[in-house]
Design brief:
- By secondary structure, the chain is an all-alpha fold.
- The chain has a domain at 522-632: Tetratricopeptide repeat domain (Serine Threonine Protein Phosphatase 5, Tetratricopeptide repeat).
- The chain is built from 36 helices and no strands.
- It has helices at 13-24, 31-43, 54-66, 70-78, 85-97, 101-113, 122-129, 134-146, 153-165, 169-178, 184-196, 200-209, 219-231, 235-242, 250-262, 266-279, 286-299, 302-315, 318-335, 339-347, 354-366, 370-382, 389-395, 401-414, 420-432, 436-445, 452-464, 468-480, 487-500, 503-517, 523-535, 539-547, 555-567, 571-584, 589-601, 605-617.
- α8 packs antiparallel against α9, α13 (219-231) runs parallel beside α15 (250-262) and α25 (420-432) runs antiparallel to α26 (436-445).
- It is elongated.
């Protein structure tokens, strides 16, 4: 519209002033419109280089900057002989807005060097650029004090945020306490500062103090407090606060759902999502749906995940939905061996998105489709997507020894140092391939990156090779290093003692883990002890151990006793185990075959036939076995 307008010969400057003023307040600011007006002003001689009219220049600068045309804004700025603060402010603001914080602050420094004092407009803009540096925030604070700008509410609020983002919680709190006047943004900013620092209780105390200052919390305040409790893992208290929110929005629901997901309470997260959808007042966005799909993946809730998938495609833009939730959907479907669905989702996404490809590789590996997982890894090279530690950690469990060595070489060639998960996966690959020396070398190389999983992997590696002594020495060293064993450590140590025949040592560590470390044994640990005693021929002790268990023994425990009875030809204990197994897994054909074989080996043919007839009456069929050989 501006480009088609022809200026009259007797053009008045106030006409352009009015036009520029209306454009600067328009929601759709255009650099093109600014350029057309600029051209008209120059053509009509209203903007000579030494024009005294600062208003037209500064409004043009603002339009160029707001329209994203930095080049034209700087060109105009450089033509001004003595730019005032209204000319400096849009340049500093634009540089801050595009994330060029250092240049924004250097422009502010040039303004100060030119003798221009800052005001309540330019300081908040500069402070937004100072969030990465405590030194810059402190220098701007000093300017605000020097030029009496700290009384300005916008300056104080910007100071709080600048100090908070630079990690100086004390200075942010000092600014807040010194404010003579506050608004809702001041309270929300300070509460957010405490929440971001993990100080949930001070944030709640500040939240309660708002009323005494005459302010009611808005939805931003409620969401900030919710986020604080969820970050601290205090989800039960977060739900109590959530129930007090009058009109929760999508951010409120996303925060509470994500909080439960982070705490591992995926069932509760999905329940809150269902409650929100059934209420109909709030529509989920792509971030929420991505979180819910991830919860479904952790629970293996395929049907619920499929429902969320359909809901997302129905209510959101498919490209945006897959961009956010695609990786979780790929992992969900491939984890349930629905590779066709997984591949369909993957094909709907950007093939160069490494995170999605990592999800597909991990899902294929988890599903046991090792060849397909390796093919996907090769595709990352063909697409020139590159790899990251997650890619390597996802594909290594699918590798043979030779392939593992190749990926190890790839990692050495492309990374200065490895992530912890890559070290852990390499230890497992070398151990499963029988190369315990290489596994130990990787463990030594991970000295600065070891976590509990690293120690567990090496202990399990020693155990699988029958090296019980080194495994026990390693668990002692792990505890001396200050790491607390977990249930996987518990299993690995018992398994190592079992394979090495260190029965008494294994029993000693079972009691130590339970009594000293405070771990509560699971069924797998009881089964491991029974198997350990059984392999040593101490069947009577094994039965006594089962009788003393605080919970009813499961199939794994009785199965271990039956295997030991069969190995030592002890029919009586085998019969006891068989009778218990009939109660917990009557459909397992292997138990019937094992018991019948045990009777047959000692010549008790009638009892063997009875077991076979029982198997036929219950229509229990032994599954066919098969074998496969993979050629390198």
């Amino acid at each position: 519209m501006v480009s088609r307008w022809k200026a009259p010969e007797t053009l008045k400057p106030y006409f352009f002033e009015s036009l520029l003023s209306s454009l600067s307040t328009s929601p759709s600011k255009s650099a093109t419109a600014a350029a057309h007006i600029h051209s008209q002003l120059l053509t009509n001689g209203l903007l000579p280089p030494s024009s005294p009219s600062g208003y037209l220049n500064t409004k043009l600068l603002q339009l160029y900057a707001d329209g994203g045309d930095l080049h034209s804004a700087l060109h105009l700025f450089d033509s001004l002989p003595h730019p005032n603060i209204f000319a400096w402010t849009p340049i500093i603001a634009f540089l801050s807005r595009i994330g060029d914080h250092r240049r924004s602050l250097s422009t502010y420094s040039r303004m100060r060097a030119a003798g221009i004092p800052p005001d309540g407009y330019v300081l908040p803009v500069a402070l937004r650029a100072a969030t990465f540096s405590h030194f810059a925030a402190a220098a701007l604070h000093s300017n605000a004090v020097k030029f009496a700008a700290t009384a300005n509410l916008h300056v104080s609020n910007a100071l709080i945020k600048a100090y908070a983002y630079s990690g100086d919680l004390t200075s942010a709190d000092r600014v807040f306490a010194s404010m003579d006047r506050r608004d809702l943004l001041s309270w929300n900013s300070m509460i957010s500062v405490f929440v971001s620092a993990g100080s949930t209780d001070p944030a709640l105390e500040l939240f309660r103090s708002m009323a005494s200052d005459g302010y009611e919390p808005d939805i931003v305040t409620w969401n900030t407090i919710l986020d604080g409790y969820c970050r601290a893992g205090r989800c039960a208290e977060a739900v109590e606060i959530f129930n007090r929110v009058k009109d929760p929005n999508v951010v409120s629901y996303t925060t509470i759902i994500l909080g439960h997901a982070r705490s591992g309470n995926h069932d509760a997260a999905i329940g809150i999502f269902r409650r929100m959808v059934s209420g109909g007042a709030v529509s989920p966005d792509q971030d929420m749906l991505s979180c819910v799909v991830a919860c479904c993946r952790h629970l293996g809730a395929l049907r619920a995940g499929g429902e969320v998938h359909a809901f997302g495609l129905k209510t959101l833009n498919p490209v945006a939905f897959y961009c956010s939730a695609g990786a979780a959907l790929v992992a969900l479907y491939s984890g349930n061996k629905l590779i066709t669905y997984s591949r369909r989702v993957f094909d709907s996404m950007d093939p160069t998105d490494l995170m999605k490809r990592n999800a597909l590789i991990a899902g294929l590996t988890h599903a046991g489709m090792v060849s397909e997982a390796l093919d996907q890894f090769k595709e990352t090279q063909l697409w020139d997507v590159g790899t990251d530690p997650t890619t390597l950690a996802s594909v290594l469990p699918a590798c043979s020894m030779i392939q593992g060595k190749q990926i190890h070489a790839h990692a050495i060639r492309n990374y200065y140092d490895f992530a912890t998960e890559v070290y852990n996966a390499l230890i497992s690959v070398y151990a499963s391939g029988g190369c315990i020396t290489a596994a130990w070398s990787v463990f030594l190389a991970a000295c600065m990156a070891r976590d509990v999983v690293t120690w567990n992997a090496m202990i399990a590696a020693y155990g699988s090779h029958g090296l019980g002594g080194p495994a026990i020495e390693l668990i002692r060293e792990m505890m001396r290093a200050g790491l607390r064993p977990n249930l996987i450590t518990f299993t690995s140590v018992l398994s190592a003692c079992n394979h090495a025949g260190l029965v008494d040592v294994g029993l000693e560590w079972f009691d130590r883990f339970r009594n000293d470390v405070g771990l509560v044994p699971e069924m797998v640990h009881y089964a491991c002890v029974v198997d350990m005693l059984g392999r040593a021929g101490r069947l009577e002790e094994a039965v006594g151990f089962i009788r003393r268990m605080p919970e009813r023994a499961g199939a794994s425990v009785w199965g271990a006793l039956m295997a030991a009875s069969r190995a030592h030809q002890n029919v009586e204990y085998g019969k006891l185990a068989f009778e218990e197994l009939l109660k917990v897994e009557p459909e397992n054909a292997g138990n019937y075959v094992a018991m019948a074989g045990m009777y047959g080996r000692v010549g008790r043919w009638e009892e063997a036939k009875m077991v076979r007839r029982m198997m036929e009456r219950r229509c229990v069929v032994k599954p066919y076995g098969y074998s496969r050989i993979q050629m390198e």
